[in-house]
């Protein structure tokens, strides 16, 4: 097989093949060009009489190895095609198979660079591929493709978590080396996943605990945004139906909240804040003020919230109904005075934790924010 894109990254190829043996040598595919897919973190290939595609010839693949490769690529409308490639240092062509995208599937962009991809996307792709390949033999490649956006979102969250530089001035300086994972399972996977582990952790005495069974709800990182107009002293809240209160049996499962949304794999939290404000409420934000970022429920939930108060203009006609139609969102926005927000917090009608946090922060810092605006 001849690979021209991300599978030329040997750590990814090793992960997909999971110990299956193979041999590699550099090779070229004449009269083909490799390009980034426009607005996507992977390449595409197309015929071009004036170009040569450089890649990797992979030989000695077992039937299991080929099945694993088909599973990894198969859900994304790629099909194998036989071509003649030239291994470097030889003149004799070799027949190999290449995964070609369906015609018209992608729009080519700039010339592809494996090094640039590894630097920006390699770590996240390895995380995503690890989850993808955990489904091999359990679900179809097409189902994996449907879930892939959230798989990438979860992978990006794990990469962000590893890069964390939060201090350990009061808490114990324990880390991954102080946890022994004996077994892992994923009994549910869909838009979110539920994951279980049998593990032991370091006790404050220095000894390891007994092996215990624990589970967590695994989602992606999210952004929380409370829009605030410091001139008019107003905030915007959004209101929508929520499954959590509904499943708990709350008679009023429509909740008041800040604007919120999951951080896509290719976004910075600040970019998500601007995108979600536009999607949910048609707002253009000015300055973002970062509040303490945090885990809302660390005992059972992996979600991590990047929280902001966003300065913006909130005229009388700013409120309305919005949301992304493709996600079946029906979101009503309310523009209210700051004092009304605090009354909602006091009465309990504002029962969303991130909204309460934003409101209390604003109550402490409101005058300073207004003076600087």
TrEMBL record:
Asked if the Swiss-Prot or TrEMBL record annotates the protein with the keyword S-adenosyl-L-methionine, the reply is no
What are the EC numbers?
3.6.1.13
The UniProt keyword set, sorted, is:
Hydrolase, Magnesium, Membrane, Metal-binding, Transmembrane, Transmembrane helix
Task: Enumerate the Pfam families for this protein.
Answer: GGACT (PF06094), NUDIX (PF00293)
At the top level of its lineage, which domain of life is listed? Bacteria
**Where are its TM segments located?**
341-364
Q: What class of enzyme is it?
A: hydrolase
| SUPFAM superfamilies, per the entry | Gamma-glutamyl cyclotransferase-like, Nudix
Cofactors needed by this protein, per the record, are: Mg(2+)
Q: Which Gene3D superfamilies match?
A: Gamma-glutamyl cyclotransferase-like, Nucleoside Triphosphate Pyrophosphohydrolase
InterPro entries per record: AIG2-like_dom, GGCT-like, GGCT-like_sf, NDP_pyrophosphatase, NUDIX_hydrolase-like_dom_sf, NUDIX_hydrolase_CS, NUDIX_hydrolase_dom
UniProt domain Nudix hydrolase: residue ranges: 218-358
CDD domains, per database record: GGCT_like, NUDIX_ADPRase
Describe the task this protein carries out: Acts on ADP-mannose and ADP-glucose as well as ADP-ribose. Prevents glycogen biosynthesis. The reaction catalyzed by this enzyme is a limiting step of the gluconeogenic process.
> NCBIfam families, alphabetically?
nudix-type nucleoside diphosphatase, YffH/AdpP family
Family to which the UniProt record says this protein belongs: Belongs to the Nudix hydrolase family. NudF subfamily.
This protein's name: ADP-ribose pyrophosphatase
